[in-house]
Amino acid sequence: MIFTLTTVTLYAAAAFFLALLMNLVRKNTTLVTLYLLQSVVTAFALIILAYSEGAVGLLWAGFLTLAVKAVMAPAFLMRMIRQYSAHFSAASYLSAPLSVLALAIMTAFSYSFVASSLRGFSDSPGIPLLFAAIFGVLFLMVNRRGALAAVVGILALENAIVLLAAFLGLHHSFGLEFAIAFDIAVWIAIAVTFLTMMHRQFGAVDTATLTMTQLTEE
Amino acid sequence: MTVYILLFLPLAAAAVSGLMPRGRERAIEYIALAVSAAEFALAILIGGEVLAEGRVNAPLFETDALGSFVILFATFIGLAAAIHSVGHLREEARKEIIGFRRIRQYFVLFHLFFLAMFLAAATSIPLITWVAIEATTLATAFLISFYNKPSAIEAGWKQLIINSVGLLLGFLGTLLFLNAAAGAGVTEALISWDTLYAVRASLNPLLVTIAFIFVVVGYGTKVGFVPMHTWLPDAHSKAPAPISSLLSGVLLNVALVAILRFRFITDAVVDPSFSQDLLIGFGIVSIVLAALIIFAQKNYKRMLAYSSIENMGVIALGAGIGGAGMIAALFHMLYHALLKSILFFSAGNLFLKYGSTKMARVRGAITIVPVSAVVFFAALLAVAGTPPSGIFFTKLTTLALGVEQFPYVILVAVIALGIVFAGFVKHATTLVFGKPPEGTEPGEANNWTLVSLLLLSSAFVILSLWMPPQLRELIYGAASIIQ
């Protein structure tokens, strides 16, 4: 069986470390590259899972995921970065050491609370790692001011959840996986359009440099 | 079959409207009106089928009484919104604020928005519900940023990002529920609500507890529960008035129904006091925060948006209390949907005339737009809980039922609702009476914007005084599904 406990942990570890690195890099291009790698990991996990179970539908879903998340989304985002010269992302609210500390606390929380909660239900060490990856990308969205980081954060969060679902042994039909992939594809298109509109209105795609003060209680 | 037709209609309408060449605004409008009327007729048929058979017999879309109830009021408000949209957009086109492309875009997204809501309400599969609710976020993103102003773009962006994060957490919660079912031996690819309930005795309680927290936080973001509500006042105040009415009156309920369905499963697995505390907690916090902001509000559309947060809090409170409280919550859902649509429509009429949503710039509406002003004033009093409006009875029932079990929560809720009432009276008096700004010409924008108002107002008055037995039966049936 190809999809063993060890490979599960390996995929989860890769997703987790990529989520961790996303918090530490400063360049937008590197951020998107890390997301691309995480998407490749996710798609391969689905494809190998499908192969080991002989699930043709899931195999197609894996290829679809690869096309949408590892090709389409990064291509859109890279073009966006080039077009608007947004190579460097905005500053984060916390400094790098504090960010690492926060991530360490979240990882510890995943290993203590989440792992103990799921003990006896799923003993795979990959599960707490994926929960840590989920907390990590949520932190990325909160901590970084860049609009692009928010987009990448959501896509990376979706990757971690899809991996978690696969590792928890949920069997999805091709139709549903297709619907989710389609949803994500539309989401990417809409997010990129919004970034374009924001650039047109505010002259930047970075929320740190935007004067987003239009909406107040006044 | 009726459910499939209901799902096909908005899809076809969106496709046909999208293909319309320049200069065919009227055709796009008439398609919207005809399709909305047909959807309402289909919703009545579905309701009849549900009353007769218990549910609709359609694979993946075995709509039950709860789904049918939501579809019924969604289509009715949809019909009124289509009528109002025609008048609202015609007036904006006359002022050259929008052109043909915008009108076409609006109606295409309008139909897709309804398709997503119908999917979410009609399906018997939790994962399809999630996909559909996520689709509502996508369909409404460009409707919220419709006017293409910086504030509208910011509102659309916030809605997209915050709701997407929330719904991904809801997705995680859904997957954990399904995983609990898989652990109980379920092998179906698409697990239904019924299957989840059928295996309730074998579900892992701890996993279900964690899953429900993710569901409440995730879908609760879409409902507008405090503190995940931050996108809602921006989105609801920046969207065109008919869209605001649909966001407040229909969409929030669609997401709330998803929470209530999960809650039913959760209560069968863990101590019901867990979900009760969670719902009552989110409910009371939402009511209090919304009340304080409503009182201090200076923008009338934002005030209405906060009123939606407050009313979602009341519904959560009723659902949390349970028993007759759940029935009161569902009646409240209906009355609030009607009233909030009336309020957003009349607020839209004020906006068309005054060109501003700031209260300081709107005075003497009673002399400028008399019908809209009277309806706005009356609807504000009604939504605040003035008797004999239906909302008075649902609020009273909820508070009365909860007072014995949760006296302090109810005391806080009563004070907060008092603040809401005072805030509404203060703001409504300022907007409706007084001397209008110089140069503001009296007269309503057009008849379309009045027909929609009168349609919903009549329905609200009738339903406050007399509830058709079939609708009552449907609501009781809906309540029995989730408790």
3D structure, described in words:
With 218 residues, chain A is an all-alpha fold. Chain A has one domain (5-202). Chain A contains 7 helices and no strands. Chain A has helices at 5-24, 28-53, 56-83, 96-118, 126-143, 147-167, 174-202. In chain A, helix 1 packs parallel to helix 5 (126-143) and helix 6 (147-167) packs antiparallel against helix 7. The mean pLDDT of chain A is 81. Chain B is an all-alpha fold and 483 residues long. Chain B has one domain. In chain B, helix 2 packs parallel to helix 4 and helix 12 (300-321) crosses helix 16 (390-402). The A-B interface holds A 117-118, 121, 134, 138, 141, 147, 150-151, 153-154, 157-158, 161, 164-165, 168-173, 176, 179-180, 183, 186-187, 190-191, 193-194, 197-198, 201-202, 212, 214-215, 217-218 and B 127-128, 131, 134-135, 138, 141-142, 145, 148-151, 153-158, 160-161, 164-165, 168, 171-172, 175-176, 178-179, 182-183, 187, 189-190, 204, 206-207, 210, 233-234, 238, 293, 296-299, 302, 358.
Compose a concise summary of this entry.
Chain A has helices at 5-24, 28-53, 56-83, 96-118, 126-143, 147-167, 174-202.
Which helices and strands occur, and which strands form pairs?
The complex is a heterodimer of chains A (218) and B (483).
Chain A: H1 5-24, H2 28-53, H3 56-83, H4 96-118, H5 126-143, H6 147-167, H7 174-202
Helix pairs in contact in A: 1-2, 1-5, 1-6, 2-3, 2-6, 3-7, 4-5, 5-6, 6-7
Chain B: H1 2-19, H2 25-53, H3 65-94, H4 100-122, H5 126-144, H6 150-183, H7 193-198, H8 205-223, H9 231-238, H10 241-269, H11 272-296, H12 300-321, H13 324-354, H14 365-368, H15 370-383, H16 390-402, H17 407-432, H18 447-465, H19 469-481
Helix pairs in contact in B: 1-2, 1-4, 2-3, 2-4, 2-19, 3-4, 3-10, 3-13, 3-18, 3-19, 4-5, 4-10, 5-6, 5-10, 6-8, 6-9, 8-10, 8-11, 9-10, 9-12, 10-11, 10-12, 10-13, 11-12, 11-17, 12-13, 12-16, 13-15, 13-16, 13-18, 13-19, 15-17
